[in-house]
Amino acid sequence: MTIIEAINQIVSLTNDEKILIENSFSVKRLSKGDLWIKEGQYCNHVAYINKGIFRIFYKDEYGSEISCFFMPKHNFISSYTSFLTQTPTKENIEAIDDVELLIINRDDLEKLSKKVRKIETWRRVIAENLFILMERRIAMLQSKTAQERYEDMMKENGDIILKIPLQYIASFLGITPQHLSRLRKNID
Amino acid sequence: MTIIEAINQIVSLTNDEKILIENSFSVKRLSKGDLWIKEGQYCNHVAYINKGIFRIFYKDEYGSEISCFFMPKHNFISSYTSFLTQTPTKENIEAIDDVELLIINRDDLEKLSKKVRKIETWRRVIAENLFILMERRIAMLQSKTAQERYEDMMKENGDIILKIPLQYIASFLGITPQHLSRLRKNID
DNA sequence: TCTAACACTTAACAAATGTTAATAAATTAA
DNA sequence: TTAATTTATTAACATTTGTTAAGTGTTAGA
User: Fold this and answer.
1) B160: which DSSP letter?
2) Residue A62 has what pLDDT?
């Protein structure tokens, strides 16, 4: 799915609009392990993932990495709080695979939004979806056991779960790698 | 703190704007235990809490109540996903105390936003703050023990924690009432 | 006021999860 | 490729948290 198809699913676009959008984004490639965004930076970009998987993580008070989200291809990614509030981010965004991004910076996104008003609607929908995702994540952490959380994750992200190192998934679920290893043994 | 003072803290207002805003909201009073919003309803209002404390909760697959958030006076409250996406809410919003609200419906909020453009900024800031709150909540549930979560809650919400029934706090923290009772004994 | 319903506490035990440490497997670098 | 490093698995044990059940307030109506 191209970026145009992804946006077109939410707000249907004319050919002219498609061209305007396409020209506003530029390609960026990263290798496995590279950080696209580092903590302390201002995140002034939003990106569409053409290829690969990203991990968003932050460091806790002991310096351990806590994985917040995984984003596979055909989704949009950013350090949203930083992008929206124009403050330094606490998050790191790391390429788990070799990845290909289509990026746009804040100014160009504003210009594009003025030229193509539908982009405003699309931005709102992206924000709303993220909001709903966070609500579901809170509900899950609050009221399900580790095994249920893992099984739910399997159902919803079965396609990418095998490509993500176990330790990252464990951190995402809020458990130790050893415990996740144990759960996997019991489930299979 | 009045609603005008609360908004004025975020976007400074002229006297005319203050009057326009004040006239757009209307008073609603509820008694302890009343539901302002019930699951299944469309939430078409946003409210400022003049007095009292609210609890937002939903029901899990077994019908148990899971408490998501507590909102004390001098904050704004809504079932945001429902309000934003105009879909039926899964949440219930309950008065823990006798409460007094200042409410505005979607249409009037849109009209007000057009008359007082700063209200757009205020709406954005409210959404951003909620977003940050949710991020912190995820981090807490993901990487802290129940005792740490309780102690953090004491630090940040010490003023209201004593007014909220223990069972609701336990559910909010993702633990059983018995376990919270045990933690309290150990801490004091 | 008395009683019934509900909320909170406590304790014993069970289940889930963390910790430590050792080993095996996989990946990376020379 | 081999050696070094990282990652994953396994097991024994410790700690945290859930479950059940009983007892003790507390509150709200009859």
Assistant:
1) H
2) 86
